[in-house]
Every structure is written in structure tokens, then in C-alpha cells.
Amino acid sequence: MPSSFDLHAHSTASDGTLTPRELICRAQAGGVEVMALTDHDTLEGVAEAADAAREVGIGFVPGVEISVTWQSLTIHIVGLNVAADDERLNGGLAGLREFRDWRAEEIGRRLAAKGIDGAFEGARALSNGRLISRTHFARFLVDNGHASDVRAVFKKYLVNGKPGYVPGEWAELEDAVRWIRLSGGQAVIAHPARYPLTRTKLRRLIGEFVEVGGAALEVVSGSHSKDDYFTMAHHARDFGLLASAGSDYHGPEQPWIELGRLPELPQGCKPIWKDWLISH
User: Fold this and answer.
1) Quick check: 158 and 137 in contact, CB under 8 A?
2) What percentage of the chain has pLDDT greater than the value 90?
3) Of the N and C termini of the chain, which has fewer Cβ atoms inside 10 Å?
4) How confident is the model at residue 216 (pLDDT cuts 50, 70, 90)?
């Protein structure tokens, strides 16, 4: 069984800066043996990534990261081993991308009202032209001297109460999990320690996730601390969930997150890949 898994990463199909092929090649060079592509609300890059994985000889897992609204908060649900041609999954994702299109235009309008012109056009130029995310706006604002880095942009412009913030209207939790399961995949709560939730509310989220058929928690994440690994492992065991691991890699511009550097899952976790048959 391969020992190095990275089951959460992004390409230029959404808000990453490497193409699917470049991402797979970097993963192979970094020692990753099984890689998932989980772009936001799209499966566009899966075919290219799968071809590249076969060429370089690593295992590949087709995936997606679905945006969900839960109690007015945006939560991300990763789907792993999904069928990229499933009509029900693709139909649900298409609806989310329609909202993304409107949101991008609205962010541009709101930033223009605050004296920042050309933000929508600038963000679109930094994207693939088909999916424009807040990260593309953040890169535009950094490039044009409005903040020192992407993190600073979010704090100053793109979070609740700031000039470019637009509330999300995403999928229901039950719908997102259902789309993933109908396509043959397994649903995972992405980076659960990153959400601004109390322990009680996080466990409420996990409980509802289990009720609608969720399979796993992302215990090891590029945005988790060492303490978070063990806390999330505890939650996974409490709820009978499998454990996943993913860097949430977006590109070399974020050097604190790199492919092939994830630690092992904490002892006692049941890996989501324990029963997978992975071809190279």
C-alpha cells in the first residue's frame, strides 16, 4: 500500500497556479505516491491530471471541493473517488459556478465603489476565465499594491464586514454529500479546524455530516497545527469517521505548504484509503 497520500490540492482549473499536469509532476517529484485533484466546484482538470499521473507513475484520485453553506458559514466538503462524468454531480456543480460568476462581478462592483477600479477584469485575467475566485481578486489586489500578501487582502477586503465581501449562497450540506455519494465517491469535511466554530458547533456540524452519509474528516491538513491533528483525530474516532490527509496546495507562491511534506495520520485513525484499490 502506498505510504504518501495528498488528497486535497488545486490547479488552474480553479484557484491554483499550476496546471493539472504541472501539479501532478510536482507531486511526483516531491515523493507523493497517491494524489487527488480537488478543485473548487469543478471537475475540469481531472482528465488532464489523470493522464499526467499515468505518465509519471503515481496513483490518482479524481476529486472536487464543494462549497456548502451551513448555518450562514461557508464549509468545504471534499469528494474523493468521484465519477467525473456523473450528471447529477456535474449538474450540482454547474449551479454553484453560476453563483460564482455573479459573485465575482458583485465583488468587482463593490470594490469599484470603494475606489478600486478594474478588479473584476484583473481577477479574470489571473484566472482561467471560467472560474473566478476570491483568491484571484486577492492576487490582483496584491499585484496592484493594495496589500502585502494574499492573507492581508482577505483580512482587509474580502471577509465579512469588509468592502469586497459578498455572502456565499452555496449548496446544502445534504445535497453536497448526496452528489458525491451518487457519483460513487466519499465525502470529507475539509480542514475542519479552520472554521470559526466552537467545539460544540464543530461537533454539531460533524454529527449532521454523519447523518447525511459523510465518510471522513480531513485530520491532517496544510492549515492544521500539530495539536489540530490530534484534536481532529479524536473527533473522527468519536463519530466513527475515516481520516483523510491533504495539503490544500494552491501553488509554489505559498512556500509554507508543499506537496509531499504531510505527516502521517495520528495513531488510531482509520485512513480513508484503507480499502482503496489504486492503479498507477
Assistant:
1) yes
2) 94
3) N
4) very high
User: How much is the mean pLDDT over the chain?
Assistant: 96
Q: Which three cell numbers stand for residue 163?
A: 468592502
Looking at the DSSP assignment, which residues form a beta bridge with residue 78? 65, 188
Number of H helices, E strands in the chain: 9, 7
Residue with cell 471541493: 65
CA dist., res. 240 & res. 98, Å (int): 35
Whether the CB-CB separation of 129 and 142 falls below 8 Å is answered with: no
| Amino acid identity for residue 267 in this structure | Q
Q: How confident is the model at residue 274 (pLDDT cuts 50, 70, 90)?
A: very high
Bridge partners for 220 per DSSP: 245
Please name the residues in contact with 208: beta carbons below 8 A apart, sequence gap of 6 or more: 70, 173
For residue 165 the three cell numbers come to 465581501
Q: Is the pLDDT of residue 1 over 50?
A: no
Strands of 34-37's sheet in order across:
5-6, 34-37, 59-70, 73-80, 186-189, 216-221, 242-246
* Assigned C-alpha cell, 28: 511526483
> Does pTM surpass 0.85?
yes
Report CA 45 to chain centroid distance, whole Å: 14
Residue 37: name the closest of 57, 54, 14 by CA. Answer: 14
Residue 2 has what pLDDT?
A: 46
Q: What is the pLDDT of residues 112-131, one digit of tens each?
A: 999 999 999 999 999 999 99
CA distance 13 to 263: 27
Three-state SS sequence of 51-118: HHHHHHCCEEEEEEEEEEEECCEEEEEEEECCCCCCHHHHHHHHHHHHHHHHHHHHHHHHHHHCCCCC
